[in-house]
Amino acid sequence: MRLTIDTQTDSYEQAIAAVQAAYGLNPAAVASGWPDAPVPTVRPGPETLGSEDIWQGWTERMLFDTLASVLPGARAVLRRLVELGGTATFDSVQEHFADHPQTPIPPKKIGGTLTSLRAVRRRVGPDNRTNLLQRDEARRIYQIEPALLEGLKRAFALADVRPGLLRQEPATP
């Protein structure tokens, strides 16, 4: 048996209850003798996301796996595009991240930051060649297919609840 306790999000009481439940102790009896013990809750995980085709092979789980795998800067750009309804100009994205307090990205580095999306898409995305993020060079805009926005919102909501599931730093060579 394997038991994982997240010391940043799980309380002491939750950790004790999890260990006791793992060894077959009655959590109800423990809770009745321990009045401030929280009721055990099921933490959402990627398995709770849908596996139905949202658009051209993309599923909610694929969207979350993409968010979990890309570099933090690319994830921040995707989040910004989702907040803006899926479309933004190159200039507005560059301006937003130039002096961003948590994820500063120099204007000339946005394109390089987003290359991790293409690399992850080949590994995580659907078998066809659809991209999560479209670039229209002529109009100078980034665009996310509107059909994917709700799935991305759910994936970001899970990422907010379980940040430990996300890639935090660039991989070391």
How would you characterize this protein structure?
By secondary structure, the protein is mainly α. The mean pLDDT is 86. A hairpin with a 4-residue loop joins strand 2 and strand 3. The longest helix has 16 residues. Helix 3 crosses helix 7 and helix 3 packs across helix 8. The protein has a 3-stranded antiparallel beta sheet. It is elongated, with a radius of gyration of 20 Å.
Structural class: mainly alpha
Sequence of secondary-structure elements: HHHHEHHHEEH
Largest sheet: 3 strands, antiparallel
Distance between the termini: 33 Å
Dominant shape: elongated
- State the strand order across the main sheet: 1-3-2
Uncertain runs: none
Number of strands: 3
Helix content: 40-55%
Whole-number mean pLDDT: 86
Percent range for β-strand residues: 5-15%
Number of helices: 8
Rg result: 20 Å
How do you describe this structure in short?
The protein is mostly helical.
Lay out the secondary structure.
Blueprint: H1 12-22, H2 27-33, H3 60-69, H4 72-83, E1 87-89, H5 90-98, H6 110-113, H7 115-124, E2 133-136, E3 141-144, H8 146-161
Antiparallel strand pairs: 1-3, 2-3
Helix pairs in contact: 3-7, 3-8
For this entry, give a set of tags.
mainly alpha, 8 helices, elongated, 173 residues
